[in-house]
Specification:
This protein is an alpha+beta fold. It is built from 10 helices and 10 strands. A hairpin with a 2-residue loop joins strand 1 and strand 2. Helix 1 (7-17) packs across helix 2, helix 2 crosses helix 8 and helix 3 (107-118) packs across helix 8 (244-263). The two termini are 14 Å apart. Residues 222-278 form the Nitroreductase domain.
């Protein structure tokens, strides 16, 4: 245990991990720290039962938090050794993490740490990606076994069709509408998307591939008239199979991409509604160059001029982490 970080460091790492995006800011994770290491579990009390009945997006969200933890630990000179789905018969136990104090972070790791603190989902229209640096870095590569595909501009017509199809299927689904109104547009300490993080109906109409949220009573103010239409690039993350491990790994890949894009100064917004319904999911999968299962899409582009939407609130670390009392005489990073 001498080589393990003390509780204060783990609290810091978990706080950074919990900055990860989650479906409707549900934050469906819980952590336990002991002499064996740090364990990540799903929190089924925060499952969106109508939107995510298979728990796919919940596991994706936890995978993103796991990658955030890994990136934060590296910047604080800790290497992580991660076992995925370590307990047979316990699908809620997603990962066991052991720490080794031997990392030698370089400037890129510190860039990613900064990205954790400033990344947010921006639902506004974007300008075009100014260079192909990040696209070249990720095009056709597999991260955590997840294939990343940069979709063509022409693909947006199909994505818009898929988005419309998804919305039409759920337009008169009272249970879905009730769930999304509960999680989006309110300011709850328990999570959810606050109204300031949503866009007005007029702004939302510029992003044809975005999810249709309830009209918020108040929205973030933006002082700009450009871009008139969304010029973002859309990236598809897909997997060969559709099992819990695939979802977990895809969440890690999503986090890696979001943080790299943020470090490059780009705005980002994950899109999950396009893969929630079978019809829209098949349309999205038709755009992939290889056979595979679409898990999540990400819009990236130049951020809009003006004040960005506020960061969505996160739970206090004490409410998601069980850990021993702080021991100040143990090694810190």
């Amino acid at each position: 245990m001498n080589d393990q970080p003390d509780t204060a460091v783990v609290e810091m790492l978990v706080e950074l991990a919990c900055r990860a995006p989650s479906v409707h800011n549900s934050q469906p994770w819980r952590w336990t720290y002991s002499a064996r290491g740090l364990d990540l579990y799903t929190d089924s009390s925060r499952l969106l039962g109508v939107i995510d009945p298979t728990e796919r997006q919940m596991v994706l969200s936890c995978g993103a938090a796991l990658d955030h933890l890994d990136k934060a630990a590296a910047a604080l000179r800790w290497t992580t050794e991660i076992d995925l789905l370590p307990t047979p018969g316990a699908p809620d136990h997603l990962a066991h993490v052991r720490f080794v104090h031997d990392a030698h972070p370089r400037s890129h790791e510190f860039d990613l740490l900064a990205a954790i603190n400033c990344r947010h989902s921006d639902r506004r229209a974007f300008g075009p990606v100014p260079s192909n640096r990040i696209l070249t870095r990720y095009l056709g590569q597999a991260h955590y076994g997840t294939e990343t595909t940069v979709l063509s501009a022409e693909s947006k017509q199909t994505l818009a069709k898929a988005s419309t199809l998804s919305a039409s299927v759920r337009k008169y689904d009272a249970t879905y509408q009730a769930e999304i109104r509960w999680w989006a547009g309110h300011s709850f300490r328990s999570g959810g998307i606050p109204p300031e993080a949503l866009t007005s109906r007029a702004e939302a109409s510029r992003v044809q591939v975005g999810r249709q949220f309830p009209e918020p009573h108040r929205v973030a103010r933006t002082v700009t008239t450009e871009p008139v239409e969304d010029e973002s690039t859309v990236v598809l993350l897909g997997t060969a199979a559709d099992e819990r491990l695939d979802w977990l790994q895809c969440g890690r890949a999503m986090s890696a991409f979001l943080l790299a894009a943020t470090a490059d100064g780009l705005a980002t917004c994950p899109l999950t509604h396009l893969t929630e319904q079978s019809g829209s999911r098949h349309l999205v999968e038709s755009l992939a160059p290889r056979n595979g299962l679409a898990q999540v899409l990400i819009r990236i582009g130049t951020p809009m001029i003006g004040s960005p939407p506020p960061r969505t609130p996160r739970h206090a670390v004490a409410s998601v982490l069980s850990a021993p009392a702080r021991t100040p005489n143990r090694r810190r990073s």
